[in-house]
Each structure stands twice: as structure tokens, then as C-alpha cells.
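Moderator note: this is an archived Q&A kept for reference. The question asked for a predicted structure of one protein chain; the sequence and the answer are reproduced below.
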Amino acid sequence: MRWAIASAALMVLMLAGLPGVAVAETVEYQVSASADDTQATQTTNSATLTTMRWPYSNDSIRSFARWQINIPVGATIQSAYVKVCSNSSTTSERAVQLQLLDSDSCSDFSTNPYAWATTGSTVNWSLGTWATGTWYTSPDIAAIVQAFVDRAGYAPGHYLGLCGSWQSGTAVTSARTWDFSGSTYGARLEITYTAGTANEPPTADAGSNQQVVDSGGDGHEIVTLDGSASSDSDGTIVSYVWTESGTTIATGSSPQVDLGIGEHTITLTVADDDGATDDAAVQVTVSAQQATTTIEYQVSASVDDTQASEASNSPTLSTMRWPYSNDSIRSFARWQIDIPAGATIQSAYVKVCANSSTTSERSVRLQLVDADSCADFSTNPYGWATTGSTVDWSLGTWSSGTWYTSPDVTAMVQAFVDRAGYAPGSYLGLCGSWASGTAVTSARTWDFSGNVNGAKLEVTYSVGAANEPPTADAGSDQQVADSGGDGYETVTLDGSSSSDADGTIVSYVWTEGGSAIATGDTAEVVLGVGTHTILLTVTDDDGATAEDAVVVTVSLQGILTVDAGDDQTVTDLHDSGYAVVRLGGAASRDPAEITSYVWYEGATQIATGNWPTVCPTVGAHTFTLVVTDIDSQTAQDAVTVVVNPYDSDTCPPLTIPIYTPQNAPATPTLEELPLVSSVTYCDVTWTFSSPVRVGRFVTGDYYVVGPVTITGITPAWDGVKNGSVLNLPVTGVLARSQTGFDTRARGGRYQASLTVVPPISMVAGDILISSICMADGETPIEPFGGGTQSGSPVKSVSVLHCLSAPVPPDAFRPGYTDRTQTIYLSRNLDRSLLPTVNYGQTAYVWPMRHGIFEGLSTTTIHTWAWLYERPWIDICWFNYDSPLAYMPGYGHLIARAESMASLILATNEAPADKEKLLIGFLQYGIDLWGAARGGFVGWPGFGGLQSGRKWPIVMAGVLLGDEDMASPTVSYPNCLFGEDTQTLYGDGWTGTTVVFGGHQYGKGLDYWLDPPPTETKDAGPYEHKDPTTWNSWNYQSESYRRCCTASGWVGYALVVQLMGAEAAWDNDAFFVYCDRWMYEDNAATAAVLQEALELNPDPYFHDDFSIPANWLLPSSKHASEQFVQDMWNMFRTTLSRPTDQWME
């Protein structure tokens, strides 16, 4: 056998040396990163799971994987197979359908791929009997892989993406995938291919775009098409077919066609002697003979002209200054014009009727208002932006009642109709401001009586002969290797296919990141290892421009490189002697596979992995990363981490005094506040244009007495991360769904219009939120779990308020959306309302210690105060921009944290020890209250995502004596909360009087009690139905009832009752439901539910359907935390409310 193998290998080597012989090669690829496979539904995406459904019992869940392949272009695929390792056992018949994702290089699955397009043939894989831990191989998918490498945009190094969806069967099986430890079980793709013998397809060239004129005036023109530049490198083109909108209009390489007036997109398809084809398109524009049109527009409404000053606006005057004696008054007019887009303006003039007489020299300056359609002047336009050229109109002698005509304003009108957003019917706005002279004259305008004297705009234009802009072509994307191993490669950029249909291209400029790197139609540039997006801008002989981009990837050539990440400087925020730091080695690269990352300080190993969390002490540290690849090559790199010591001026206070009316501090005068040029808080630094007065709230957050201009923020916005937002909105389309901190926000939630950069002007009432975000490639780690459901890239934020005057040192920070700057004082807290029950110990068991809790053996009231000492940003639903260094990224975890924190505050801990946690917890409530007062829609029930936002508001209102805040659902009934929309009185199938309100999908309870006829989901109350009649939506609601809601609510439900605040809470069903959750036998009802669902005829509940094991004993639980369970057991029965009101 050894001889046979050796002989076969020798034969391969011999054949490889023969010309014209293609040798088959077999390669195997494996999923290599946590975002390279996923389990996806229509609404959610789980790119960090270690298993995925293969398949699910219906098409509501699909699974995806991608592999980076390096098969040569033109290769012939002999065979291809997917291999997965089973994570479950079954004998049921089922099949998964495999399809190719329609992409030249598949993106990772950090965004939901459920609806991504697929293409080409499908392969159905009948799975049969599976045993856990066994590898299984699909049928041959050579056709799918061949279709991928045959794509015009394919290049070695691209990612092939595969969708695995349900094809048949009712059993649910899962496959092991990326497992975060070398990907031992990552899905594999085995391919056997031959290279070098595939036919090279032809190249179609349909010629340059053409612009012609209907020379005969009959609505048609004969045009010659030219495909003679088409070619076939390894054969002959045997046919040329020209089509328009799918209809053949000509054949041959250079036919003549009769085209009507208008734009024509004509496609040339060429076929070679091997049957391969290629397409190219040409644009032909046939214009009518030019004719000029003159039209006159007149101001037509009282708000279409105005006289405006810096402070006032007069859109209803019958005259306006034309001009005033200085620039303190400007005049505006607008006209609704219907000139066709693309028209050429031959001439344009403004005409006004004088309302006064003078011989003094003076001039008015005309400028175009910078808007695609100018708004009316019901708001003051004095400071509106203008654009383009100006025209100064020297007025000379004027006689009242006489019409006068301006110099030609063609350039302005042309600029307006050339705007990308212009359409006929848009309003052109003009500003007339003082240019010279001291005389004041006025012009008659809208006069409310037929508008005889309204300002006029006369325009002469033609259509059909406008310059055709050039077409930029930056060439095909390139993948090159660093051939010299020095980290750089010389690359040729090719823009020679750029064209100009009606003239000549006069310049080619290549830029990267806004900086010019080369000129000319072709250029050689030296690029470093990495991915480069290079922009080509071409300009024609009429000044028109066009852009196109090319992506050049320079990869390492057989070299293992290591990158330990950027140096870091952080601060010990708690005077604990250390800081929590994420080290980053994910930028390390190897042509094959890196198998280990080991971190050292000196000779001591401190961590492993490409993103480990460490706790370096105060001082400077040098950490060395050693990486090893699959070939046992090693390389190392070092990173410096400096941990600055605690500084009370830049960090949260370690303790907070108990302020009362008796010891309340005085309000400082403005002169008593520090005068500074910059201020730093929690590693964010704001720099001001000139020294300003700053103060601090009781929380430690800073405010500045305005107005002020911020000229710098550190860390700075780099176009991707560390963004700042001024006056975060709580109403409108941006509220609850968008963020301005980081472009990597999950689900495309980043909104560029929210991001502000210096210089930033702030006046009293303005609020600036500045963020520190994750490094490139970093994965989020929150304090309550190794990962996060929200995927927020934000690590922390700092908030800066601009006030009009100093506030007392015991003032809470106003809500970070509360521009009314409502000030609450801690001296007014009625702390006697806090319970003081005896738990018997001061260590509180909390199993998930990550982020700021990293390295702690237990948690105390002081470490819980760390959680609330910085702002929790909680407006964008699903926590897509929450600061995950200290804030939970999921509503159920927010509720669990609140139960822990508020129960700790309800113990007999010393008041001085409670104060910092109390202040931070109430500040979170004040922040949420500010959003509610501002018109925010709230946090309605959506599984476990929207829990926990009501209690901090209620608690703050009760303790501060603010009745409106204490009962937010009474004072702001349109602001919804998850606990209220998910609990209600009603008869349940288990014999209960209170039921769960359902999953609800972000809508309020009233919606689901009476859903519209068009609603397709059944996501509201469901427990009144017999489970034998449930559908999949009902079951989904039940899953959230058991996993992610009441188990987190019960702690603060107990505190509300211990404080006697049930009336303020204003939903009695909530407390009865929490009793039900704690006293009903959840495991027993789950077992009965399993039996009922087995009788349910809905195919969703298939033959081997089973409820999750954690719904049954011994996993079934009531409170999520043991401390909460203990407190409930000890003190719930001390309340006057019966514990059995939930039972019929």
C-alpha cells in the first residue's frame, strides 16, 4: 500500500511536468471566524452561536456559512462537498437545500443574511440518521462552486457563501460550527479542481456612449453602433447581437439602427466559438433640435418673499429693502419653476418694481439659496446658506413705480436646475443682500391684490444640448501579493476605459482617503499590505466630473505577521489599583491558519486568545503577543498599556455625601467655578476655543456655563468610531432606531446626520454625548455575560451639559435628552422610604463577572455602584448603541441588574454605603424620565428586550416627591413599558387569573387586544387559549415568558411593594403576575404543555418536537439570581398582599 501511494504521487509529479495536462488538486476550507457562519431568522441573526439549525422544521430559520477560497480563475471544478459535524441525533427523514449566495465575495454575517439573494442551481441533501459528534458529507455541489468561480467578479481570496434552508421533514437537527477554540468543528468545504484548460470567455465592447441630434427634425436619427473592439483571447467571436429592453434590434459588429428621440440603453452580447458569452452596454441619447423657450415667473403668495433681519422676519410686507444701507437686513424671494431638468439656461433676469426714488449709488448682491426646493419664508431665512456665484446689481437712479431689470443671473439659475435633487415644480430661492452704498431703497413685492407688482424672474432656456458628463472607469478590483515580503507592493491603476461621449477627458486624479496618490489614465502606486479603496475622478473639457472606485487588496506572501494592536492609555476609574483592558491580536495574519495566541508580560504568561481581557495594575506595561501558525512558525509583537492612577478631577467620585436640607451646599457663583481650557471625564476630553467655567453634578459628570465652542474631542471621530451626538432626539424617525456613535452599529442603525464633529457650538440647553468605541475587529464584552445580544460597538460614553448658570453640588445631572435642563437635588430625597431589611450578609452572589466586574471574586454594594456611575444610553431600541463596558446589552439583563441593585438598596446596609449606588440608580431613572417627558414612545413589550425601564423612573419620583415622575404611565400614557404591556388580568389555561401579554413585537397591549385586519402575526395575549390550539407565534411568546421576563422582574416587584409604591406603579396585574411566576409550579406546567403540544395539529409542533430542557426540573427556576430568590423567600410573606391572588 505504501508503494501504491508513493507511485501515485510520482505519477502526479510526472503528469504535472507535461505540457497541456491539467492535474486535479483537492483542497479543504473550514469556517475560520465567529461571524463566518450563522443561524438567521427573518428578524434576528446569531452569528456567534456554536451551532446552527441544519435544517430547522420549516423555512423560518436558515443557516449560512462562508469560506475564503483561493481556487484559480478559470478552474474546472471536478467535485465539491460540504462537511458538517452533527450536534444532535435523529432518525427522522429531513432534507436541507443548499444554494449559492449571489455575491462575488460574500460578506460576513454581522448583519442578518436571511433574505440575501441566492443564485444558480440547488442541491437537496437528504440527511437520514444522524449521531451526535459524527461528520456528514453532502452530495456533490460542484455545479454551485463552479458557478461561483465562473462569476465575472470572482478572484482568488474571495468568500463563497452558502445558504442551508429547510427543504423537507419536520425534525430539527443542528450542526456544530465555529466554536471559538480553533474552530475544530467549523463547517468544511472540500473541492477538487483542475486549472489551466477552461475556455476564456470573450470580451464585449459596445463602444463609447453617444449623443446625437435629430438632424431631420422628424423625431428619429440613424446611429451606427460599434462593437468591433470586442475580442476573444483564445478563439473567435461568432455572433454579435444588439438588444434594447430585451428585444433584438440589430446583429453584426457595426450595424446602423434608427432610434427615436430619448435615451437608449443598448446591450451587445457576443458569443465565442466555445459558446461562452459576454455583455456590454452603450448609452445613446437622441436629442431634439434645439429650441429656446422664454418664460416669466412671479412671486405668487404672501410667504414667497420677505424682508428679514437677524432677529425678525416680515413675509407679509408689500415692500422689501432692495437693498438696506448695510447687511443687517436681507431680502428674499422664491419662484416655483417648471424648467425641464437638464435644460441649458440661455439668459435669466430678476425684475422688481421700485417703491422709492433715489439717485444715490448703491448695489444689491444676488445669491442662490442652497436648497433643492426653497422653503417658504414663514420662518426667518436671514441665516440660510447660499451657494455658487454672486451677481452685484448696481442700481443707479430709481423712480418709484418703475420696473428695473437685473444683470444676467444665468449662472445661478443653471446651478439650480443642475442640482441632483432638482425637479420641475421646485422653488428657486434668491437672497438679495447689501453690497455697497448707504441709500435705502425698497421694491414692491407681493401686494395681496392680484400681485401686480410681485417680483419676477424671466428665464430663457433650451433643452437637448447640455454637456454629457464623462464616465469614469477605475478598472477591475485587484488582489495582489506582497511579493518582496516587505509589506508593500507596486500596483498599476488603470482608468483608460473611462470615456466622454461628447468631448475629451482632460484630467485623471486618483485619491485614497481624500488624499491624491497619482494622476494620469494609468499610474503605478506603492501600496501597503491591506485593503485599499482608491477613487478615480475624471474631468471633461466642459468641467463635468465623474467618479469610480477600485478596491485593491495587498495580501501577505507566505509570511506569518503578528499585530498586538494599538498602544492604550486607560484610567483606574475606581482607585482599585488596576483597570480592565482588552488586548487585541486579531489583526495578525497568516497565509494558512494561526493556531494560538499567547500573551506574556516579561516571561509570565498572562492570557491567550486574540481578544483577551486582562487587569493590569496602575503603571506602564509591555505585553508581548506570540502567535503560532499551523506550520509551527511563530512571530511576536509588543503593545504598551499605560494605566493612569485614579484622579478625582477626571473620574467618578468614590463616595457621595448624603446631602439633606440641613447640610445642603450653597450654589457657587460663576466666578467660583474653575476656569479651564479643557475638561476630561472617564477618558473623554473636550477642548474649548477659549477658557470657560465648568462645574460638576452630584454624579461627577461635568457641565459648562455657555455659550461655548468645542474645538476638539479625544478620542476623535475617525470616520468609523468614537462619535459624538448633540441633542440626541427622542421623537421622529431617528428616535429609537438610529445611532450616531459608530458606523458598525448592528442592523444598519448608524445615521450620519446624528454625528457631530468640532467645532461644535453649544448654548444653554445643549447636551453633548461623546463615545469611546471598540477597536477595529474587537468583539463586545458586557459586565453581564461573555457576549451581548445587542452587538453594540460602544464601550463607554461621557455627557457634557451646557447650562446658563451654576447649580448646587448636590444637583443630579439633567436627563441626557432633557433640553429643559430640569434640575433635581439630592437634598430632597426622602431616604426614609427605602426599606432596611436584614439579609444577613453584604456579599451578593452574581455569577456573570465580566467587563468592569472582571477579576472580582464577589460583588458588594460598592462594586454594584460602579455599574450605575456612568450614563446608560437607552434610547435606541435593542441597545444597539449601549455602552457595554458597564451597561447590560439586553433588557432582561437590565431588569436582572435592577432587581439586584434595588434589593441591595432595600437592605440594612449603612446609609453612607448606599448613597453612591442610590444616586447612580436614580440618575438612570432621571435620564429615562427626560426621554418620556420629551415625547419618547417608550419601551413596549418585545420578548425580554424592553424590560426594566419603568422602575428607575418610579423609584426616583417616589424618593424625590415628584408625583408625575413617580407615575409615568399616568402622566405620559403614550410612553409604554414592557412590564405593563406584558402583564394583564385574564383567565389562563393553567387556571390563573393573570396572564402574560405576549411577545408583542414592539407594539402596545391595546394593539394586540384589537389588532387590525392586516396583521399577520398572533403575538399578543395567548394564555387564554388551550395549547392544543396554539400556533408558532404563541409558542414564541411562551418561550420569552419563561426565559427572559418575570425571572428578572421579581426583585424590583418586591422592592416596589416593600416601599408601598404599588399605587404609583399603576398596574396591579404586574405584582399578581410576579407572584404567579414565583409560586406556580413552572416545571409541572411545562410538562403538561409538552403533552398538549404533542396533540397540537400545527406542523410547527412536529413528531419529535420537545420543549427546552431548562423549562423542566432540575433546570427550571423562578428568580434568575439566588440573592433575589433568597430575598423573596424571606420578605414576600411579610407583605399584606396575599400570595395566591393569581389562582382561580
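Archived answer notes: The CA atoms of residues 249 and 1108 lie 63 Å apart.
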